[in-house]
Amino acid sequence: MLSNIRIVLVQTYHPGNIGASARAMKTMGLTDLVLVNPRCFPDPEASRLAAGAEDVVDQARVVTSLSEAVADCVQVVGASARLRSYPLPHYDEPSEMAASLVDNAREAPVALVFGRERFGLTNDEIRDCSHQVSIPANPDYGVLNLSQAVQVLAYETFGAWRRLPDSDYQAPRHTSMPLPTRQQLGHFHDHLSRVMHASGFITQPHARTEEQLRALFDRAQPTRRDISLLRGLLSSLEEGIGDQ
């Protein structure tokens, strides 16, 4: 489904913005990039700022008009910082746009269109769109650069796809260190108790110090490696106490 979601950049002036936008796309699983009359492309700056998304840049298609770029799309959403006089349906919330876009992408290509860095899309280009979307931002300074706008809307789109029951999305799992068994924890606490008594740290036979330390380590959930490290420290302290 994500392969049906196209990013279209219209007359991008700085080639670096093409690369940065490609990077923003790839982090969100999007790979279909179409460029409408870019000022300078291909360009080493685009590849440099892609930073690992060079494949998206290399596969980008260059066309001469927006109508050509979106001819096969069933939904075309133009990103615009301001409302136009042309009466298109407008999404005030990018999340609503993303849900609609993903739903339509099940059957056919759809597109997100971004205009020039300085003044966005023209009114004629807006007419090639079926919808508009704006990114809510600080009303006193709502200026996003091109790749930032691509990142925000690509993120919303990826999130809408990810939450679908049939997306099969699986978040990367971090490798976790094994926890100690209760027996290993028991040996550690016995070891700790010996050292605390031998060092003179515990002088009152009914002190709750050991109980509080047990609770502390239960909350901390040390790994087996942590316990091994602590027991090594305790063994070193025992040797020092014995040499006194």
**Outline:** elongated
Task: Describe the main β-sheet briefly.
Answer: 7 strands, parallel
State the CATH class of the largest domain: Alpha Beta
**What does the oligomeric state look like here?**
single chain
Verbal overview:
This is tRNA (cytidine/uridine-2'-O-)-methyltransferase TrmJ. It catalyses: cytidine(32) in tRNA + S-adenosyl-L-methionine = 2'-O-methylcytidine(32) in tRNA + S-adenosyl-L-homocysteine + H(+); uridine(32) in tRNA + S-adenosyl-L-methionine = 2'-O-methyluridine(32) in tRNA + S-adenosyl-L-homocysteine + H(+). Catalyzes the formation of 2'O-methylated cytidine (Cm32) or 2'O-methylated uridine (Um32) at position 32 in tRNA. It is an enzyme of class 2 (transferase). Belongs to the class IV-like SAM-binding methyltransferase superfamily. RNA methyltransferase TrmH family. With 244 residues, the protein is an alpha/beta fold. The chain has two domains: 2-163, Alpha/beta knot, CATH 3.40.1280; 182-243, Helicase, Ruva Protein, domain 3, CATH 1.10.8.590. It is built from ten helices and seven strands. It has helices spanning 15-27, 44-50, 54-58, 66-69, 94-105, 123-126, 146-162, 182-199, 209-220, 224-243, and strands spanning 5-10, 32-36, 61-63, 75-79, 90-91, 110-114, 131-133. It has a seven-stranded parallel beta sheet with strand order 3-2-1-6-4-7-5. Helix 1 links the parallel strand 1 and strand 2 (32-36). Helix 1 (15-27) packs parallel to helix 2 (44-50) and helix 5 crosses helix 7 (146-162). The model has no long low-confidence stretch (mean pLDDT 92).
